[in-house]
Amino acid sequence: MGVSTPALPSVEYDDINPGMGTLNKDPKSKGTSKRGIHFNPGDVLFGKLRPYLKNWLFACFEGVAVGDFWVLTSSKIDHGFIYSLIQAPGFQYIANLSSGSKMPRSDWGLVSNARTFIPTNLSEQESISSVLFGLDTTITLHEEKKRQLERLKSALLQKMFADKSGYPAIRFEGFDKAWEERKLKELGDIQTGNTPPTSDSDNYSLDGVLWVTPTDIKSLVISNTAKKLSQVGVTKARIAKAGSILVTSIASIGKNTLLRMDAGFNQQINSLTPTSENDSYFLLTQSEKWSEKMKQIAASATMQIVNKTEFSNISTYVPVHKEEQEKIGSFFKHLDDTIALHQQKINNINSVKKSLLQKMFI
Q1: Which among 95, 131, 298, 308 is most buried, taking Cβ atoms within 10 Å?
Q2: Domain co-membership, 184 together with 313
């Protein structure tokens, strides 16, 4: 056991990014005098409380593990291999045979007596851990780049769109006129969706027109598991054209997307099909501000759904010239595409890591 000091920082559950094995804050910036299990550089921390949360860490410094941790160390096995082993399906299965329902904990009696296979050659252990550490490093790199881009986008959303003054703080060169305040109904055609009866299987098919619900909208894109409408279903649904913006009318969700193709959508979504004078991606980017206003509308209502009339009367500011809209829209599209690219790379590398954890351990 040990007590944390400025030179011996503590690590707690909330400090670890679940499943990533990284810290979300500098341990030395926290308070001191917390009692826990002393660990050394190279030791492996495994969170035994709610093991499905995957709170694990390969320690790169000396410190104190505060809370329900096991600190794993060995004089015979490469510590990097131990860190890889605890992520493998076999160990995870045993660790999740936990006791307790509300606060389940891994059972040390089960885990400590579980049998596993370990390479007798230390070099093979090190090679396995080196491959998996390399993947973790690459994932962390893409996660950090993604976070930086998301922070940049958040800052620019405050600077590149006009406030009540009619002028944004940052503009592209060549534009200086005040933006105009408009209601959404002045920017395009607005519809609220509906749902063809799900009890009638003739309304849906494996191939057909895309059908979208709020749960299908994932970070500006639509899930590839979204349903399809049959030709019969299309006649009973409301269809938004490609280029339309879908905005979830449940204010607390606040997820929006731009349609790349014609699609039907349900009654928990409002659509805005921009007129030819307005740029779709500019309005999509600005829709994050609409969602904030929708939350304010819903806060004073019994239902959390913002109806078509309320949505249509939301005010926003738009540039006088479409060219300025297009430049802003193009800029944010490139930013969103880059963020999505990093996320896709993270997903791909995680898939590779998952496969290797299944195949590199017996």
Answers
A1: 95
A2: yes
Tell me phi and psi for residue 270, to 5 degrees. Answer: -105, 145
| Total tally of structural domains belonging to the chain | 3
3-class state of residue 8 by DSSP: strand
Find the largest Cα–Cα distance for the chain: 74
This prediction has a pTM of 0.83
**Rounded to whole angstroms, how far apart are CA atoms 38 and 16?**
17
Question: Residue 25 sits in which domain range?
Answer: 2-118
Q: Token digits for 303?
A: 């239902």
- DSSP string for 92-106: HHHHTS-B-SSS-B-
pLDDT in tens, the chain (362 residues): 888 888 899 999 999 999 899 999 888 887 778 899 999 999 999 999 999 999 999 999 999 999 999 999 999 899 999 999 999 999 999 999 876 667 889 999 999 999 999 999 999 999 999 999 999 999 999 999 999 999 999 999 999 999 899 999 999 999 999 999 999 999 999 999 999 988 888 898 888 899 998 888 887 778 777 789 999 999 999 999 999 999 988 766 668 899 999 999 999 999 999 999 999 999 999 988 888 888 888 777 666 788 899 999 999 999 999 999 999 999 999 999 999 999 999 999 999 999 999 999 98
Considering the domain architecture, whether residues 309 and 186 belong to the same structural domain is answered as yes
Residue 241's closest CA among 316, 186, 188, 314? 188
CA distance 339 to 226: 22
**What is the rounded distance in angstroms from the CA atom of residue 131 to the CA atom of residue 358?**
14
Structure-block tokens of residue 282: 């500019």
User: What's the DSSP call for residue 37?
Assistant: E
Q: Which of 251, 326, 335, 219 minimizes the C-alpha distance to 283?
A: 326
Q: How far apart are the first and last CA of the chain?
A: 34
CB-based contact 247:256 (threshold 8 Å): yes
